[in-house]
Amino acid sequence: MDAIKIKDKQFTLSITEETIQAAVKRVGEAINKDLADKDPIFICVLNGAFMFAGDLMKTVNIPCEITFIKLSSYVGTYSTGKVHEVMGLNESVVGRNVVVVEDIVDTGITMEKIIASLKAKGAADIKVATFLQKPDALKRDIAVDYVAIKIPNEFIVGYGLDYDGYGRNLKDIYTVVD
Ligand code: 5GP
Ligand code: MG
Fold first, then answer.
1. Cα distances (Å, whole numbers) of residue 126 to 7, 77, 86, 112, 172
2. What is the average pLDDT across 154-167?
């Protein structure tokens, strides 16, 4: 299905499952190489990154832990710029090599806050692995270590990412038609 409707909006297929799976595998393989002896703790940022984290961790085969935090910043198709921590971190990250697993880096405001919070909690090294990045939308000077796919500055849904709560279960990525 190339065209779908979610609530009041039309979306069109833009990135296929096949392309997504290949890109996610590449990120996992790079992490296996880079962090083999680092005993990393992966922090999956809910809700959006759940599917990326699930697939990524099937390729990651080095000793590691994975945990979850939950944030919310979007209302509808616009970032509010205010990031709320809905569920915090239970594990200590003191002296740890942390990999933040995100669905998308858009303005970078969310990631900047996550990085600052992990630094304050004593993480030794912080890497960022994001499924998508919108390079043209970046407003903060943050280093993104692993990007599966770069996309233009348009609103997308699927593969964990939602429009008002819907569309997270789609295997492919769809772009809004306006
Ligand atoms: P940032 O703080 O970098 O502007 O935004 C990060 C968050 O906004 C992401 O984690 C994601 O939840 C949400 N976001 C940014 N762009 C999109 C998009 O195109 N579609 C959806 N569904 N969420 C987005
Ligand atoms: Mg997110």
1. 38, 29, 21, 11, 29
2. 97
